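Exercise: predict the fold of this chain.
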Amino acid sequence: MAMKQSVSVHIEKLVLHGYPSADRRRIAAAVEQELARLIREQSVSQLPRNPVSLDSVNAGTIRLRATSTAEATGTGIGGAIYQSLGRRGVRNGR
């Protein structure tokens, strides 16, 4: 029987330029949902076994349509954060 592993991600501050403050909660919820989905669907064996703490993660530039919803924006950001963690080797425990 496989043991369930627990993953905890804490984002202290998410800096977004050019977005209305009224959308912040919906964007944050979509980021959280997308990160959870990606972590759940990817192999947990790729995640580090020991806690990892990063002062910052630069997810780069995300290109979205001007008509994107807050949810689509958050989903794009969550995916970019996840990819950024992979580039930094976090998913390989480095």
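Check your answer against the key: The two ends are 28 Å apart (CA to CA).
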